[in-house]
Amino acid sequence: MKGKGTQVWKKSGAVYEGDWKFGKRDGYGSLSHPDPETGKLRRVYSGWWKGDKKSGYGIQFFGPKEYYEGEWCNNQRSGWGRMYYNNGDIYEGQWQNDKPEGEGMLRLKNRNRYEGSWERGMKNGHGRFFHLDHGQLFEGFWVDNVAKCGTMIDFGRDEAPEPTQFPIPKVEILDPDGVLKEALDKLMKPEEEEASPCP
């Protein structure tokens, strides 16, 4: 089978409409599944395919309000993409092996946000967390979603909807940068790069 065509899977009721090459989904196409409650077809993916796998740009719908738009490689989110979550959070940035990896931003429903490094789907490395609800900014180093060391400053505190009771006092340490560098040096470990078939 080559060119454009439609396939219906009898067992699952799934329907693919789009391009084919050598009997496999290849090119642009859409995949739909029947809704378990209504039985009506609901689109779950629209985008590019290669060798029967999602590859290139595409949009995957996980639920009515949860979807991903961005790059794919071998059926996994890989490259740049934006994920909208059911709870109102949005992640925008780099992906690898179906998880946030590299540089990215997570904007929470309450408008607070994290901008920085990700590894294995977690905050890892240098980053900044904007506590816009309290008018503070934390800049530092994360390990597996936990902020390990850094600095917290007031940031737009006067405009914050729920500012902290007291402003952050001035740092009185003689060498705050040296203290922070020493703490970071203890946390840093050599990064091992793993080969991946996807860029």
UniProtKB/TrEMBL annotation:
Keywords: Cytoplasmic vesicle, Repeat. Signal peptide: none annotated. It comes from the Eukaryota. Its main location: cytoplasm. It holds the Pfam family MORN. InterPro entries: MORN (IPR003409), MORN3 (IPR052472). It is found in: Cytoplasmic vesicle, Secretory vesicle, Acrosome. The keyword Transit peptide does not apply. SUPFAM superfamilies: Histone H3 K4-specific methyltransferase SET7/9 N-terminal domain. GO terms for cellular component: acrosomal vesicle. Assembles a suppression complex (suppresome) by tethering SIRT1 and MDM2 to regulate composite modifications of p53/TP53. Confers both deacetylation-mediated functional inactivation, by SIRT1, and ubiquitination-dependent degradation, by MDM2, of p53/TP53, promoting a proliferative and cell survival behaviors. May play a role in the regulation of spermatogenesis. Interacts with MEIG1. Interacts with TP53, MDM2 and SIRT1; the interactions mediate post-transcriptional modifications of TP53 by MDM2 and SIRT1. This is MORN repeat-containing protein 3. It comes from Mus caroli. The gene is Morn3.
